[in-house]
Amino acid sequence: MEKVTIYVSEVIRYLPHKSQQEIKKELTANIMDMVDELTAGGMSEKDAVNSVLTKMGNPRLLADQYLDKKAYLIGPRYYPTYVIIAKIVSAAVAFGITVAFFVQLLFSADASVFQSIIQWLGSVFMGVIQAIAWVTLIFAGVERSEEVGVFKKVEFAKDDWNINDLPKAHQDSKKSDRIEGLVGFLFAIIFLILLNTRLELFGVYMFDQGTLTKIIPIFNMQNTASWLPLVSMAVALNAFSDGVTMALRNQTRLTHVFRVALNLMSFILIAYVLINGNVFNTELAAQVAPNSVELKNLWIWVQRNIVVVIVIANIIGIAIQTFQIARFNRT
To answer: Is the pTM of this model over 0.70?
Structure first.
């Protein structure tokens, strides 16, 4: 009866946590009743289980029948994960802004305590709001993508499902992939928030006898309107791609293709900005060490070759994903 246990687990994982145990007992009892009827008629237990589960069909579609169909922004399937991720991202962003705030205080010793607290509270509030907004948009995007068939076509089509699509008993269900997606998602969201709220923190920190004296930005702070929106869009696409990996337990060929498309669009945007936009602070070397020819030449080399590094890294990543698509379901 191991297949029954696996099948029921596949069904209830799409349902709200509060109703999982009740539905698990009900569904297991119904399946076992149908199996008993078939075995009483002379069918073997194995064949009876396969017949019943095949008749019941795709676990995802069966789970839909238990859901209260409402106009959810974030539906029951993703809501528990959404709440956890929103809390983690909000806490990380609040912590990052707090650190940034105290760094800035080193340069504004004349500011009153009350004014500083108000500024910090405002910054944390706006940062957390933006973080939750981005997380909500990405989860809503995954939810809507299923509704319009971006994932449903392959993963949820009833005619395409059979008993062999059930995961093995000891299969990890690609837990490591989901963790990797979670880590990438968190880093992308935090980077996106800091990029749009505390861009000046990305720089070279200058100290004098252990005291921070100034931060020399690595980015061009005078030309942000020409490149920051495009870079933000590229990071958001990466976050969405990682969000798909994090949210969907069972990856299909179509979801892999969808992720490759997102990563490719992100790569094109980044490459375009680096090639055509004045992104970096060209005077960084002179501001850090005015008399260092070596540092100047190194910074020029970095600006010229960072595009090559990004191109190679993205080609390797996309090639790996394409290989995964090619061998999908062959093993």
So the answer is: no
